[in-house]
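ERR on first pass: missing label on line 2. Operator R.T. fixed the label and resubmitted. Corrected input:
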Amino acid sequence: MVPAEELQSALNQVPWFNSLTPEQFIKTAALAHLRRAKAGEIFFREGDKQDYVYIVLEGRVSLDIFVPHHGKVRFYTAEPYDVFGWSSVTPSVRQRTAGAVAVLESTVACIDAEGLRQLAEKDHDFGYLLMRRLANVVASRLMVTRLQLIDMFAGPAEYKND
Amino acid sequence: MTDKTLIIGSTVALPKPELDLLMADLRRNGFQNVGPHLQDESIIYTKIDGLKDLPRGILSEQNPASYRMIQTGKDRYFDFIPGGQSWKQFLFPPRHTLFSAVKDGKWQLKENDEPAPRYALIGVRACELAAILVQDKVFLREDFSDPIYRHRREGLFILAVNCLDPDATCFCVSMKTGPRHTAGFDLCVTELDEVFLVEVGSELGRSLLAERNFDLPSAFVQNIADQAMEHAAKSMVRTMDTSDLPSLLAGQLDAERWTEVGKRCLSCANCTLVCPTCFCWDATDQVDIVCKSTRRERVWDSCFNPIYSYIVGGNTRPNIRSRYRQWLTHKLGTWKDQFGVLGCVGCGRCITWCPAGIDLTEEVAAIRAEVKA
Amino acid sequence: MTTTLINTAAHSAGYSNKLLLPHWAEVVKIIPEAEGVTTFHLKFTDPEVQNRYRFEPGQFNMLYVPGYGEAAISMSSDLETANGLLVHTIRHIGNVTRATTRLKVGDVVGIRGPFGTSWPLEAIEGMDVVIACGGIGLPPLRGAIYRIIHNREKYGKVTLLYGARTPSDLMYPSEYETWQKAGFDMQVTVDRGDDQWTGRVGVVPMWFYHFRVDPHKTAVLTCGPEIMMRFVIYEALARRIPTEHIYVSLERNMKCGQGACGHCQQGPYFICKDGPVFPFSALENIFNVEEY
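pass 2 clean. output:
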């Protein structure tokens, strides 16, 4: 187990935590622990039940999906202060839809998802801050996904004459 | 004895047969006369020798998608309004070999330095001269001067003609380019029934005319000519409001009208072919089957060509709507940003020769109406 | 009877076409890059032309393959160390560029140029520089990268954001370490990676979420697919970088390179002569107009 001070100072670096009240911070920190991962270490696999939401502090974590005939396709990497595994905080989805693996040696803050959800139910002010952060994460992820979907580096457009 | 000394600005009454002798003089001095000629039921510009080659007694009647000729039987040579061709084919040839290359081990290049004929343009209308001046701004620039155009333009002789019978598609009055010539010609002709009134515009014109048999026109005759020209200007029916060009079109790139006209336009490129100011071109290789010798040719091109804007990432103008918009917003808009003048001279050819009968004066008015709505 | 009025001999004398005449250049070296992409090192066959030739990063040449035609290819040479060689990285995707796959060392192609405007490397001295590019958009910036490296002290923080579809599509991967050592913050990303790829997976514009830029002293140079540039510009503007400090390299159907043939027009500009490099402030009214 990692000393509480180390955890606290690590979380202090994450910008979102600065928007919490001291009480909210303490309650959230109580749900968190630090994990150090070597390159190649797996955080979760597709299909796993969702237990944590993660914040990268150092290193790089890759998200991947297994595509038949293509193997594990890495479609996103989370850099320092990126959140991954965020769907565990939303009310509906209950299974991991992607896998997460450290590609570099990484330090990651893991926060108990069920605990966060309960905290949000009890304290709606906190809940709002949490959902607001989540909305931003999803929005930026959506932008990235759209650009990947458009496949902007694809080969020549089919020539259509109208 | 009346003084028959000519100066620049003098006007004489020239008996019509004297024009043949004038053209012969030009020939003797190394010029090739080109002018209007009736061929295959159409008036084209081609090599001519004299009056016999001009469309005698022809009057024209133009409307969108329609050009008709009427036989008047009169002994008049310039009553018609010019047809689909313009003088740009002589200064900016539709096809021109730039160089040829032969592979003999390594590629060897041979430039095409064959000189062009020295042209005498016979029968240039005011809108057409204005178009030449517009093309001068396109082809003879400080940063880029087209040697093919310059070579042909430098030696050019222009015999201008004042229009007396504008057709329904003409709108040179709106574009302030005619129907009356003001400057830029060597000689300028106003045709009367019996004679040509000829005004001297340059030293070259003066010296040629000085050799001919002419009379000094009476005030009465001058008056008939002036009245005819005034009548010509007044009788023009088509107009285009240019007061808010070019900014009108730049601000209306999203107008509904573009979609509407895009449905009617066939992207056939007729308008750009007949337009006397359009200047786009392409360069192609005419190569033999073993790729050992090739000839690089410059050819006319058109922004309506579907692959005009094709790049590997895709076609930036993939439909007719976008291509028509490009043509019109360039001609009546960004042309001015590029060259200091609008690209349209009001000749009306694009209206006459559009198979869909699209009228750019109508399109501009419709776009303007959308702003007000 | 008439005197000779005009000297027609003068009309013909000294007439020369000189339009679209190329200079010949020999292929000196061929380097396969990614799939469907090759880098050529070229040298003019005429030493006088070779000595006279000058260019600025951002400009392009028209490359002529006899029998096929011409293609506009950016200059990618490092001026300082090129030894006068023209470096052209070509994607084999059109008629002319596909013909270049058959070139061997010693073959000859035609070159006309250089044409166009260049990256404003002097104007942005003293600033932080973010170079955001993707795919085949890196070659036009390679000359600029080396110019900055050779004058590193004249610039502040310098970042290279480069994205490609997959790891095998990255251009010049062997040079990244050199650039990193020369003081570039290298952020390379791919749209999707395989399980061997330990670099970033994402898109170039998203880098802006992770780093703070000082809008008062940051210049952005961007080149790549227009949609990538659009989002880079969007993110740069969201961080209040002024439009005059965002520089874009546009691509249109360039044929003559001299603003004469009309094909490359966008709005009032001839991309070949008023561009291809523009400050975004010059493009605001026309950049986002669809199909313009």
